[in-house]
Write a structure and sequence with these properties.
Length: 608
């Protein structure tokens, strides 16, 4: 409520004084009422002085003057000692009242200023601070408490703390504990976790501490509680514990053995599979330090080379290496117990990049290695028999071709034609044997690619067909391939000759393309129908010509080109004219070392 204007206050005080003086005179002089009773009408004057506050001194003198004037105007026996004494009394009373009023106001302002200062101190605190009076009402709460609870300060002051901030399930226990503290039966509780509920119903976990508040007489007036919100920390810790439990369960149930070591090689943890692996060697407990392995195991490579301790997988990891797929044969010293393990491992680093532990995994591949060795042995035996068979069949084919050539010189007519068919069948048998040998080499472990002189390969193939018109104007180009690259040109050129007319013309081009080369083998033969092109490179897919083979040649070509990291396609030599010849185009990668580029190769014209 806004204070009244000064003019209004003076007016009201004047009315009170005038009424008081008139009533005093009337009761005392006219009605002959006792002086003591008439003095009660000085009370409004005293109240007016209190109300006016700091102007009390002026009021006192003003009142005294009015009383004297009133006596002079209303009485015949003016100027008596009683009148002067009454005036002095008004002055003294007004002075005392004004002094007391001013002191009380000053004390009130000091108290308010100290309260505001204390509230400011509380508001800058990062924790919830609340004063709970003995009647369980909230006497004071800081800004952080309001923010945490979700209320304004005026919504909290005076309300029951337990009804507002304590979850219902804990409310009665909290009331009883508070009552014991306020009654002095129990001391303040030690620091503990406490749960509060916010305005929107969320629960927060606080580190809670309470202290008993006492008045000037020593009586307990309430408690001061402080709480730091640790909800997110508790939730993060719980999530971390859950994650650790999940990881521990995953690690423990891995089929691969896993060991965790400190940087000195001391094991920190072995999972179930690791303990079982050591049990295969007759050990009840896994070894301690990495140095203990030297007395228990011998580590060798798969070819039997003994590994010194500094080359053991764990030693390499502790040096900072990251290992993967390291196959080591492990034998228990003094026994015939032996296993083959595939090792992997790395150092684990903290957020700053400093290593603090090593992790090593190992998988028992003894059975797999045994199967691989047995398969390799069987494959070697099969290859031996196949080599013998290919050798003997080729010898028989060579003899058959030789005799057919001799007979062809002495025979005429139908007999000569039959000899030519026999010779064609033998040639087809030779082609089949060659394709089978090529496929066998393709199925063998892929050797690393190496630089191959593409120009030399092409020119060697051209020399095999001197009777055919093959046009090629190339330059030295080195590509990544292996010894089977000639098979690509043998099949493509051979197909063009087989399916083309006697006067077929073949053109071979090599062009630079995106860091590699594009090779084209084009012919003027009958071409390839569009419906055959999508499946032409599939296994056992033959063309529609009566001269089609067994469907392996182009399948081998695609396998080889893919093996070299390229791709192959078939197109019409003349776009839109399938019957004007075919064009096989495939890509190869250039080797790292390349000759200086020569001028672009001019396109080799083919007859239309």
């Amino acid at each position: 409520m806004a204070p009244l204007p000064e003019t209004i206050r003076i007016f009201i005080v004047g009315i009170l004084i005038g009424v008081s003086v008139v009533l005093t005179y009337y009761f005392h002089a006219v009605l002959s009422v006792g002086a003591v009773f008439s003095h009660f009408f000085y009370i409004p004057i005293i109240l007016a002085a209190l109300w006016w506050g700091r102007r009390g001194i002026s009021v006192a003198f003003f009142l005294g003057g009015l009383v004297l004037i009133s006596h002079f105007l209303l009485r015949t026996d003016v100027g008596t000692v009683n009148d002067y004494g009454r005036a002095v009394m008004f002055v003294v009373v007004a002075l005392v009242i004004a002094w007391l009023s001013e002191r009380l106001k000053r004390q009130q302002k000091d108290t308010e200023r100290e309260r505001d200062r204390a509230q400011g101190y509380l508001d800058v605190a990062a924790v919830l601070l609340v004063v709970v009076n003995a009647d369980q009402t909230i006497g004071l709460v800081n800004r952080r408490g309001c923010e945490l609870l979700g209320y304004r300060e005026d919504e909290l002051i005076g309300r029951n703390w337990f009804d507002v901030a304590i979850p219902e399930r804990n409310r009665e226990d909290a009331r009883r504990a508070f009552a014991r503290m306020v009654s002095g039966v129990a001391t303040a509780s030690p620091t503990e976790e406490n749960v509060i509920v916010t305005k929107n119903g969320d629960e927060r976990i606080l580190i809670w501490k309470e202290a008993v508040l006492r008045g000037t007489n020593g009586r307990i007036t309430g408690t001061l509680g402080s709480g730091k919100d640790i909800t997110e920390r508790i939730r993060a810790q719980e999530a971390l514990r859950n994650r650790e439990a999940q990881l521990r369960t995953i690690v423990e149930n891995l089929n691969e053995g896993l060991g965790v070591f400190d940087l000195d090689g001391n094991p920190l943890q072995w999972n179930r599979a690791a303990r079982e692996f050591f049990g295969l060697f007759g050990l009840e407990n896994p070894p301690g330090n990495v140095s203990d392995f030297d007395d228990l195991f011998e580590f060798t490579t798969t070819d039997g080379t003994v590994l010194p301790p500094e080359e053991w997988p764990l030693s390499r990891v502790l040096r900072g290496e990251q290992i993967r797929d390291v196959e080591v044969r492990t034998r228990r010293i003094g026994t015939d117990l032996e296993r083959v393990f595939n090792y992997g491992g790395t150092l684990v680093r903290d957020a700053g990049g400093s290593p603090f532990m090593a992790v090593v995994t190992f998988t028992d591949i003894t059975g797999r290695k045994g199967a691989e060795e047995a398969l390799l042995s069987a494959n070697e035996v099969a290859n031996l028999y196949l080599d013998i068979m290919v050798h003997d069949i080729n010898n028989a084919n060579a003899i058959a071709l030789g005799y057919s050539d001799i007979l062809a010189e002495d025979l005429e007519g139908t007999n000569r034609g039959m000899i030519q068919k026999i010779r064609s069948a033998v040639s087809q048998s030779i082609e089949i044997i060659q394709n089978v040998s090529t496929i066998r080499r393709l199925r063998s472990p892929t050797p690393p690619l190496k630089p191959v002189d593409l120009d030399a390969v092409i020119r060697a193939e051209i020399r095999q067909h001197r009777e055919t018109d093959i046009r090629y104007d190339g330059r030295p180009v080195t590509v990544l391939a292996d010894d089977l690259l000639p098979e690509v040109f043998t099949n493509l050129v051979g197909n063009s000759i087989k399916f083309g007319e006697p006067d077929v013309v073949i053109a071979i081009r090599v062009e630079d393309q995106d860091g590699g080369v594009l090779v084209s083998v084009e012919d003027t033969g009958p071409g390839i129908p569009d419906e055959v092109k999508p499946t032409l490179f599939s296994r056992f897919r033959k063309g529609k010509s009566s001269k089609s083979g067994k469907g392996l040649g182009l399948y081998i070509v695609r396998m080889l080109v893919t093996r070299y990291g390229g791709s192959i396609r078939v197109e019409d030599r003349v776009p839109g004219a399938p019957d004007a010849g075919a064009a096989f185009r495939f890509t190869l990668k250039k080797a790292a070392r390349e000759e200086p580029e020569a001028p672009a190769i001019p396109e080799v014209p083919l007859p239309v």
